[in-house]
Fold:
Amino acid sequence: MQVLFKKTLGFTLIEILVTMVILSIILLGLSPMMLSSMKGAKSSKKRSEATTYGQQGLEFYKNLLSDASLFDKFVKDSTTSNDSILDSVNIYQRIFKFDTTGLGENLLRINVKISWKKNPTSNTKYNVNLSTISRKLN
Structure:
């Protein structure tokens, strides 16, 4: 008796090439999404760092202003303050403003604006604004 069909094991070269082409098309389609995700993560990290630097500054001034004599000086002068923070890549600039507009007696609003550039050579600036109210302690 003669065997009409020969049973083969494995894949042919054509099947492997077609599979590789399909996989490469899928992977090329996913690469822009991965790049976008990586840019978003980097932007989120910078915004988070800026927010942390702003919160540190607000806490510093809230603690400093717990001294009644310093509180009165800040209220009288409506002082502003600037500083810069250099981390491994970025320079964050903080601008503090102190005012009593629309607040009751013995209250002071502390605003901080944190700015940074997208990268050192870019002109694109990003900002985070934070605010809190400090009370004069007697």
